[in-house]
């Protein structure tokens, strides 16, 4: 846990998927934040008002959740709260691609985090999204992402064997991590929760995006000593809960 | 596991939140009960008919779940089944406060369990609920809670550094536990599942409320040897599954 | 993990319950597959089109999920994708029994997996389903199941102390497992995910059903060294992730 975050206990409002909702809550807590997952449209605006940051994840949509996500995002913009989007599976179905576009037209995101397929679809190239946890083997020109981030005024995170973070001015590449992070569900979602928690604690967008991505990769390296995937999964929570602010020294400049 | 519960296998019907629904099912099983989570309004009444106790938790609401919770509660009353309410985040949003009031007007609860903010809101004082997992640093006059429980004819549980359980006649304070129970999501929800399981197994309301609260606190103490929060979380399930009826000796009179 | 599955990374589309959705995703990954849980009716057909197999589980229904499950199943049939049904709690409520019948009339399932109560209800005998995780102590004439499977043209799996798998021609009994598999939630659901993953990887229905059932039982035996239920639960994921194709040698002929 980060003592500075624990002392502030930023409230991180998640509108997220049903698969990894518990993991996202626990990851937020492990870093020192306080998660809340309120999706009822009758309370979304009020809860965003209480929140220090908002996390939107389109992993499992339905008509009600789509309406709530739009309202939450617009409210966050109105109240100037930081907000992160995880466009899970963007490109995999027309619904996800269209709904993400709808979100992007209605809401300005502080950070958007996706894998190569998702970010490729985001910037208008055709991705080859197959599912939501599938490494696609695709490549992406990071310079294009960098320029797109600048035009959008948003910090973008592309996760993969090399993670790339850019706000259109600054950029960093991270090689931290382990392939096993792809063998449990929700490590991407949890990364967004870490970034959201850092945003809620007052880190700026580029720092929060870089540190959150780094923390998950590093947790994967620490947990990698586990023989099986059950222990590896719990190892991620162990690692984050035992991490302190000290671990971030030099990360911003380590990549490139 | 409690052998007496395991032999009876009481069916505990949960209408609960999406975040901790798996944890609640596993905690019910760890004590020896049998969980079922049926929320479809077309089967709620029939499932309550099968159940030995009902657990209602408002952690993540939507229009459908609110209707089902009301129907489940009214059915439980009609069939004289014990029912526990966990008013998660009551006071945090108007919806949660209003809906809890609606539940209280339509349903008589056997037990209501909340943190200081939630119970404060419940008894008409203004709470300062910020999220759902946030320790508020608020204080509460337990004598007021005691009298309110008497008027309501309900056993009330206030969780916190000191847990307070009262049915308006008997009362007990418990100091068991560890602050780390606040650093994983759902320990409150799981406490309600333990209480519900004890109710379903035939314990009276005051006993079930006290024992369930005690068991979670004690599990936290046992699990506290874990270095990280992942192992601590699993340690709670280990502890409850390895607990027997013997562990409750003297608990009812230990507090005060 | 099965290297052959990991190399193919079959996409397993789940329309499943809220309680064990995370566990099902992680179990699919642990064997080498890629899970996706898309329930929005606007994307169900498209996602089934991407999928290598479909898993339908009626553990927690609502109006939207029922419509999506019907559409997913019909699409799977149309596209000739393998599909498995887990009729959780069939017989416990009228809704579950009726909806399962509706599914069976509209969809041809490659595999149906249930416990004794569920399969008894399925073949028209009256089950005594009480919840969803309750061992009923009922018995079932496996010969009747065998003949029913033949008439249905579906592979049936009956789980219990003795697991019975039949496609109406071949049949096998398995005695692998541990009673503790009944003390955590979702082992049945996860078995369906394992079978679904094997179907998606190209195993035929009888093989996939037998191997998936065997793998979960064997994982239970391996994990049984854990003292408590938290570690036992994680032990299941450890075990599956450390299993290889070698472990299946002789299983098809071991039973009978």
TrEMBL record, chains A, B, C:
SUPFAM superfamilies documented for this protein: Ribokinase-like
CDD domains: THZ_kinase
InterPro entries per the UniProt record, alphabetical: Hyethyz_kinase, Ribokinase-like
Pathway: Cofactor biosynthesis; thiamine diphosphate biosynthesis; 4-methyl-5-(2-phosphoethyl)-thiazole from 5-(2-hydroxyethyl)-4-methylthiazole: step 1/1
Single biological process term from Gene Ontology: thiamine diphosphate biosynthetic process
Signal peptide: none
Residues given in the record as substrate binding sites: 37, 186
Catalytic reaction annotation: 5-(2-hydroxyethyl)-4-methylthiazole + ATP = 4-methyl-5-(2-phosphooxyethyl)-thiazole + ADP + H(+)
Cofactor entry: Mg(2+)
Highest taxon listed in the record's lineage: Bacteria
Gene3D superfamilies with a match to the protein in the record: 3.40.1190.20
Binding, ATP: 113, 159
Enzyme Commission number: 2.7.1.50
Designated name of the protein: Hydroxyethylthiazole kinase
Organism in which the protein naturally occurs: Exiguobacterium oxidotolerans
Gene name of this polypeptide: thiM
């Amino acid at each position: 846990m980060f003592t500075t975050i624990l002392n502030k206990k930023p409230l991180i409002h998640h509108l997220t998927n049903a698969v990894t909702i518990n993991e996202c809550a626990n990851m937020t807590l492990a870093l020192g934040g306080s998660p809340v997952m309120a999706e009822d449209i009758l309370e979304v605006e009020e809860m965003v008002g209480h929140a220090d940051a908002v996390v939107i994840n389109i992993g499992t949509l339905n008509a009600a959740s789509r309406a709530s996500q739009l309202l939450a995002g617009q409210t966050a913009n109105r109240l100037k709260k930081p907000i992160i989007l995880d466009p899970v599976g963007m490109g995999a179905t027309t619904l996800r691609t269209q709904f993400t576009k709808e979100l992007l037209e209605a809401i300005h995101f502080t950070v958007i985090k996706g894998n190569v397929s998702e970010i490729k679809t985001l910037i208008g190239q055709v991705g080859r999204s197959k599912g939501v946890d599938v490494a696609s083997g695709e490549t992406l020109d990071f310079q294009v992402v960098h320029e797109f981030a600048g035009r959008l005024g948003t910090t973008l995170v592309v996760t993969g064997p090399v993670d790339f973070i850019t706000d259109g001015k600054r950029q960093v590449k991270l090689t931290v991590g382990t392939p096993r992070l792809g063998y449990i569900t929700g490590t991407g979602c949890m990364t967004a929760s870490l970034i959201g928690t850092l945003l809620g604690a007052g880190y700026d967008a580029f720092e929060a995006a870089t540190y959150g991505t780094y923390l998950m990769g590093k947790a994967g390296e620490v947990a990698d000593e586990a023989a099986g995937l059950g222990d590896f999964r719990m190892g991620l929570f162990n690692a984050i809960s035992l991490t302190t602010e000290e671990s971030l020294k030099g990360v911003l400049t380590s990549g490139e």
